[in-house]
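Marked as duplicate of an earlier ticket. Keeping the data here for the record.
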Amino acid sequence: MLIKILRTFSIAALALVSVNTSAQDLLAKQAPIDRKLKSVDSLALVRQIETEQAFYPAYSLYPEWSNARVHAYGNNVTVPDTFRIDLTGFCMPTPHTKITSKCGPRWRRMHNGLDIKVYIGDTIRAAFSGRVRIVRYERSGYGKYVVIRHDNGLETIYGHLSKQLVKEDQFVKAGEVIGLGGNTGRSTGSHLHFETRLLGQVINPEFLFDFPKQDIVADSYLFIKGANMYSYQRTRALAALKKGDFNKVTAAANSIRYHKIKSGDTLGSISRKYHVSIDKLCSLNGIKRNTVLRIGQVLRCS
């Protein structure tokens, strides 16, 4: 009887060991599959991001793509303190060199671009490669105008055209004809109103382009928050940077990282991904721990 009981226990123990071994074998076999699935998911995500980046220039900077308004951002974006803008691969929008009105205060209001003397029917070209965001007519403002968003983060605006030769959402290359010079909208004579902006922030085009020489000022431009319209502001800001470590500041400008919110993202998961505290994320983006994150929203992470 005792022998039977011992035999029964032995068989049960062997069965348990076999089940445990089988389960371990199953888990071991499953592990490579899980890793493969994870790599496939990661690859698919990378491809999706690359596709969106190709389709939407400066995808990591801008929270949305909208054809509704020129100045569509307001408080929906986080403007970096500094940002390096690549100016290579440019084309002058017009071969004309005479500036008739500069960027800054004019007639008790702010003039947010340069007026370059052109004649009705003159060729106007895209300054950089990018995607056309707006093609519209504004009777009391820009007249017939075109807005293009570029891979380097800039948006360029071409106003008072007599004719627009591109469509919204169309891709254009630097130097491609986008319109003809004109005198439409709020204009007192034929000219091109040319604006350069980053996340809606005005940048004096003369800081980027040398119209008399028909060239860019440098291969890149360091955007400094609050110092992009007036020469005295810019001189003061650059002097302040140089008192610190200018190289470290510019390196930091190049290493600023952004994250576009997708389904399932939380402040905790973003914090872990970019190795930054939740409090720091909140501080960088002007939000609170209980702020609801919107899909498509862009957060600064460094």
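See parent ticket for discussion. The first helix runs from residue 2 to 55.
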